[in-house]
Amino acid sequence: MKLKKPIKLIFGVVIFITLPSLLFFGFLYYKHHQELPSGTEGKTADDLATKMLVALNYEAYTSTDYIEWTFKNKRHYKWEKTKNTCEVFWKDYKIRLDLVDHTESKAFVHGFTIEGEMGKDLVNEAKDYFDKDIFWLIAPFQAFDKGVSRKLVVLPNSENGLLITYSNNNSYLWHFDDSGKPKSFNMWDSKTPIDGLSATWSDWQIAETGVKLPKFHKVLFFGIELSDIKTD
Asked: I want to staple 79 with a disulfide (CB 3.0 to 4.6 A). Which of 69, 86, 89, 132 is the partner?
């Protein structure tokens, strides 16, 4: 009998904490959830994708050999595109990634090489960071990558959107300004809890090589800042 009161107290605390969270998530889901739209493949979709690339100076992107940036003031990258290598920095770690031959990647802390399982784990962690973070910097330039499909979607406002789907079935519906530059997209991917959630693409910076890269995204109430962008 003496256990009943503590159990009731614990149960009440759990309800107090979880119920508002569940209700809030339910509200967000109801407000932002969207079904994946259908679209039409072909020349019109490809033309829209090409217009986007022109607006962002894709030619300058292809001739850019080096891109450096910081993701949310947490991780710093020095990506040598033509060499397929990237140095990743966070906390006291420096990881030199070989993006072609993963076994050639190296991990360091305070300048000392880390080998064995810890070194492998840090390399894998850096590769995961790179794959995830670089998407928010260069996703528009992947429109014609191998395994990527493009579909034209007529939006409710009668404007045209571009539905990009990757080989892993992650899909993104791009919205554009009059020049063809992206201003937002809706997401249907494995890491997003609400299908169709919107993210902005804004504060475009013209980098040293002439390519346009984004400095900020907003997803719901959260910001994704990309800073210290440099190109060569």
From this structure: 86
